[in-house]
Amino acid sequence: AMATATATTACLLAVWSLVAAGLFGTGLARSSVAPAAVGKEQREFDYFALALQWPGTICSSTRHCCAVNGCCRSEALHTFTIHGLWPDYDDGTWPSCCRHTSFDMDKLTPLKPALDKYWPSLYCSSSSTCFSGRGPFWAHEWEKHGTCSAPVVHEELQYFTAAIDLYLKYNVTEMLATGDILVSNGKEYALSDVIDTIKHAFGGSPQIICKKGSVEELRLCFTKDLKE
Ligand SMILES: *[C@@H]1O[C@H](CO)[C@@H](O)[C@H](O)[C@H]1NC(C)=O
Question: Signal peptide location in the record (predicted)?
Fold first, then answer.
């Protein structure tokens, strides 16, 4: 469904196609849609999606632990965490790896506590970066998506700051609570109620990705200027 979605309805269609398919079962992985060609000049993106992950769903398949994996903390994560801020095209595809710029952790020193808290990796293995490298989860997000965020976001610190600012401003836990939806592992709510509540509180439909009947990811769409 996503591949054929047009214009500003991209997120909305993805959600409703899940509903039509009987709500759950099939995860709507982004990888099911071919990304725009890598390494070529790519046109400017159309809108941003703030992708949030639900650790309970992802961590339920953690098999071994390591220091970088947020799933392995002594205090379990009980809140949505950031996956990334993604520039997208209206046609369901997205630009990726737009510039040759390597990730530099030192530039993010001022944000390190916030990144650890709100944007942890939920895996042990390092992530692929553009141009066949590997690195921390943040390197993957910056190189693959962040470099395509121009002309709105130009550099690394600005990219991570923008994502964290949105995350703090649009607290989905609070939005869901306005509809008496208290997010936690094992609680079940009708998907339509989740969508309606976010729609009401946020002003736009979320895109929801499920895995084996549980919410794995929730995405909010923003216009290019980072307004909802
Ligand atoms: C979001 O709101 C919940 C409920 O009020 C709160 O516990 C949580 O700390 C907030 N999250 C962030 C990142 O501010």
Answer: 1-29
